[in-house]
Request: fold
Amino acid sequence: MSTKAIESLSEDTVRRIADERDEPEWLLEARLDALDALETAALPDVIQTPGRRWTDLEALDFEALVDPLNQSDATERTAGDDEVVVLPFTEAFDEYGDVIEANFGSVLDADHNYLTALSVALFTTGTFVYVPEGVDVEDVKVRAEMNSRSLFSQTLVVAEESSSVTILESITSGDGSGERVDGDRYFSNLVEVVAGENANVQFGSLQNLDDDTYTYSLKRGVTDTYAAIDWIESNFGSKLTRSDVETELNGDGSESQIVGTFFGTDDQHFDINARVWHQAEHTTADLVTRGVLDDVARSVYEGVQDVGEDAWNTSSYQRENTLMLSDDAEADASPKLIIHNHDTEASHSATVGQVDAEDLFYLESRTINPRTARNMLVEGFFVPVFEEIAVDEFRDDVEELVVERLQ
Amino acid sequence: MSSQDHLKETNTEERFEFKKEEKSAFKSEKGLTEETVRVISEDKDEPEWMLERRLRALKHFQKMPMPTDWPEAPDLSEVDIDEIIPYIRPDIDVRGGVDDWTELPEEIKDTFDKLGIPEAEKNALSGVGAQYESEIVYQNMQERWEEKGVIFCDMDKAVQEHEELVKEYFMTKAVPPSDNKFAALHGAIWSGGSFVYVPEDTTVDMPIQAYFRMNSEGMGQFEHTLIIAEEGSEVHYIEGCSAPKYSAFNLHSGGVEVFVGEDAHVQYSTVQNWSKNTYNLNTKRAIAEKGGRMEWISGSMGSKATMLYPSTILKGRGASDNHITIAMAGEGQDIDTGAKVYHNAPDTKSTVESKSIAKDGGRTNYRGLVHIADGAENSSTAVECDALMFDNKSTSDTMPYMEINESKVDVAHEATVGKIGDEDIFYLQSRGLDDDDAKQMIVSGFIEPITEELPIEYAVELNRLVELEMEGSLG
Reply:
């Protein structure tokens, strides 16, 4: 996709980023390979129907959005327990270089698409989480603030055999106390999760960037035998968000849950994708997404349940529900089943609708004013996904953002 | 013998698979050039405007890409238009079809006898058209409909005799040649098909049927069906298709346009049993005015690859649409079918019911689109897809797309995929059925909600086809 070539990008830019961080040679090579991949990689696939392209990534002006050498963020990382390693990527090489080298890029290929290649070539922030065998931690938190034109983040989670970890990540825009960057911005977030045998990873992500920001986020996990990866993907901010959350169920008996929420107001555009590949026996997946749209906001949803030829005894479920609060909003959805093994129980459903008139009437008849009644019903709409969020603090944060948007 | 018994007792395989020696009065060269198009138009003695439309469609065809960039699109690499014989006029005396079977050459009459068409005509139909290769050879309708002003004739004849209507509706409003590559191909070299006109407030109470048969190796059939149902009228049109199997591929690329007037009701039923070397790439579309109702009922059993997504544009307030689809894919088959509905007015409703069965390495896909336009208030749509799979060599995909631009709507999509329950089979076996019969019975039960919507002759035929597909294929 040479039309997207960014002039300010060169091998020199990439070398400077790597040098400043004193990175090992293999990572520099990986970055340079990613840079090369930009020549041929295409933008992420976007759904097209006759006469319509659901999300227009082609319209993004990467030349203006990408400022590789001035990336800036303020990120707070807490481990909550000293048995788990939670470090900025750049500080982890001395001690954990081997673990990183063995796992980096094992889940996501840099040349997956143009935006992943860009991200791998240019990332300057991100977190390495390492959970050794048998360790059980619940309180890993990564709170990041974006303070520059563009920011590329790369996270790697390695959970060893029979370990268990809950990671909560949030990203917001800086309050401008530092140097203020006006105009459009671009945030790119790649997350790789490697779940070892019988490991259990819960990864919650909360994106609430300001409305000048374009966000690209791709999170993918791979499970070993009996492992479980549960994702919670909450999107509230950004002008345009493209979010992909994916699990490859490669181990027998492994499981994944992908819970998604979004709430769009004004002219926000959310392109939300949840995908799971069943590639082993006795695997289970559950995809649950709920979103609300107000004003002229627009959502695009694609859910894919792909059951491989050897995925005997698969259970796979998917639900997506969108609630429209405004006549001018638009909701597009495409839940897909790709089934190659008959020993499967798979279902999906999707609905789009508005607040139920009877429910509203009932509440109003109880003297609740229409606005409050509507807000109560919207909060109620999110309850099925809140219930899937096991971490109280994270649930509270998401609920708070919902309430904030209903004001 | 009732028609039902007749269908039951006929050996279905023999009924579809026989071949007849190729005998034609006129056969075009292989391939597609402007010259081919001119020759076809001239052989039909068409008015100038039709030739111009054909040539315009040809230009679109030459420009447009193959639909290969779709996700998981069927493999069409073998479809080389230059290898196709686009036009074969059968050797008959009367153009536009005779109205007495006995006037047909023996081998053509025998073909349709074997397919059970004259028998069905006697018992259950208001009218019948039969196409052999590129042209209609038989066309008849009961007199009482003719008296009421109902028109049912060969499409080529309609161009001559109902020129104004055809000129207004033919590939101008519903299926423009620019819609897709195969619609463009169809527009360039279409031949045969039916023209149906039902005047205001007229209810045609028994179905009319057209049967399309390809007999020659390597031919393409491109019939065009145009149905105009005026305000308050009602008609049920049934289409059947088959061909014997040859080693070279055949191509069927039909075009269907249906105009459902205010409060009119049109049902369009298809049972497609093309041979497994046929590529079946059709464009079918209906436009429904205020209060109009369109029903598409499709059974896709045959063909090597099918790409078929009957569409309805709900243009007037309160218009409605029902889609009922059964697809069955066995070894080497890729049945990619579904539905498209555009809700462009308030109070419109649509329902889609799809059942598919994949076995022996076959692939079925439900590919569907529901679009609700801004302002189409109080519209509702419900899509339900169920798939049954027999083995892990087969593939069952479901790819619905929903585009909702209006908030006062009720939109629901559901899909399930599963295998035949071991317990169900065990139960039936314990009642003395063998494994094959038990599976057949479960499959019949699986598609029953759809077959019960069909006229009895077609339900029986569909069940026979399903049984035939199942026979001996179960381990």
Observations:
- The two ends of chain B are 36 Å apart (CA to CA).
